[in-house]
Amino acid sequence: MAARTTAIRVVSLLATAVRVVAAAIAAVILLHAVFVFFEANPANPLVQLATSVRDTFGWFTVNLFRTDDPKIGEAVNDAIAALIYVVVGNLLSKLVLRAAPTAGARA
């Protein structure tokens, strides 16, 4: 019984970690959108970090939409990437939780 409870806690912790990592990536991608929209100094280390995270994890929405104002286009593309990370992170978290042994199951 104690092993099952421990397994449930470990799986729950893993599911939480998946959600937190996905949310953190999404937050940094949104931060990049803010930096681009307000024309932050690209030489700033924080801006460079946000750009690096966006290029690494949000590459699939780069130039997805092009608008007359490139700042708005980049902000929209970043927002889409962030939304995808939040949604996929939550779905993966739920899948991980489904793998947890149920509290009422008997061996």
Gist of the model:
By secondary structure, the protein is mostly helical. The chain is built from three helices and no strands. The model has no long low-confidence stretch (mean pLDDT 90).
Explain the layout of strands and helices.
Blueprint lengths: L1 H36 L7 H13 L12 H29 L9
Structural overview:
With 107 residues, the chain is mostly helical. It has one domain (2-98). The chain contains three helices and no strands. Helix 1 (2-37) packs across helix 2 and helix 1 (2-37) runs antiparallel to helix 3. The longest helix is centred in the N-terminal third of the chain and has 36 residues, at 2-37.
List keywords for this structure.
about 110 residues, mainly alpha, about 75% helix, elongated
Extended strand count: 0
- Annotation field: number of helices: 3
pLDDT below 50 for ≥5 consecutive residues: which ranges? none
How is the biggest beta sheet arranged? Answer: none
* Principal-axes shape call: elongated
* Integer tally of domains: 1
Structural class: mainly alpha
Rounded to an integer, what's the Rg over CA atoms? 19 Å
Order of helices and strands: HHH
Distance between the termini: 9 Å
The fraction of residues assigned to DSSP E strands is under 5%
The average pLDDT is 90
Helix content: over 70%
